[in-house]
């Protein structure tokens, strides 16, 4: 089976390509020729065919899609960059996605398409009883969730054989700088996390089987990965030797994440292999020396984090 992975060098894509190779697939990757991507690609040797290009460019996409059996469309601009550069985000997430679907439709034998969507499409649901189910109404709350809803609509009306995965939150497992967006989620928000390796299993199991097509699937870590944002943040900070941040630093405006009903997807795909505890431990292990230095300068780190919050110190 010949599989194209768009954005294959991203957080989920690299795990996905590895899973597909282990199942005997021939894997092609379409990604941008950035310095980091070129360096990472060299580590794959000849096991993956790399097409360097932009999903907004029809010629690049046609070359990548040619003679493939399945397209796994992961390439996307996600928050916070999606909010900081909405023009770029729309051109990639909407226009680029249309290019991928159109290129697939132009093939003599049309490939099947798996589209990576998000649980953000349900909007704020703290006032509802969990979990969310596939048939819940879609409520865009920002440009990113609107892009995903548009992508779903484009694909399901394209005439292609399709599958949509609405993914839960997939933490970056390595170090990343803090961002003010961390304070834009109320602490009581329900959120479900998913190890990117488990997302890759769900993708690989799906595209090499026959059961997922022309259906929408919820892909999250399951009951062991269902937490509140307060629990999520406290555990992540604690793993770095840092204290929890004050409640007053966080918004109270509802945010668009929740727990998911993944029973159907787990029954078919058998992908839930990591708990939240294991994800936290892996993030901590990958932090390297930062994990050991942070407790020594915890007060300074905390002050720097709080300077990112638009809500702290609270008005008196």
Give a written overview of the molecule.
This protein is of the alpha/beta class and 316 residues long. The protein has a domain at 2-176 and 192-223: Rossmann fold (3-Layer(aba) Sandwich), CATH 3.40.50.720. It is 38% helix and 14% strand. It is built from twelve helices and nine strands. The protein has helices at residues 13-22, 35-42, 58-65, 81-84, 86-106, 143-156, 196-207, 229-239, 263-269, 276-286, 289-293, 298-306, and strands at 2-6, 26-31, 48-52, 70-73, 112-118, 162-167, 190-192, 215-219, 226-228. Strands 3-2-1-4-5-6-8 form a seven-stranded parallel sheet, sandwiched between helices. Strands 7-9 form a two-stranded antiparallel ribbon. It is globular.
Strand content: 5-15%
Stated plainly, the CATH topology of one domain is called Rossmann fold
SSE ordering = EHEHEHEHHEHEEHEEHHHHH
| SS-derived structural category | alpha/beta
Assigned CATH class of one domain: Alpha Beta
Q: What's the alpha carbon Rg, rounded to whole Å?
A: 20 Å
Stretches where pLDDT is under 50 for at least 5 consecutive residues are none
* Distance N to C terminus: 63 Å
Question: Biggest β-sheet, characterized?
Answer: 7 strands, parallel
CATH architecture of one domain: 3-Layer(aba) Sandwich
Report helical residue fraction: 25-40%
CATH homologous superfamily classification of one domain: NAD(P)-binding Rossmann-like Domain
Shape designation: globular
**Count of individual helical segments:** 12
**Strands side by side in the biggest sheet:** 3-2-1-4-5-6-8
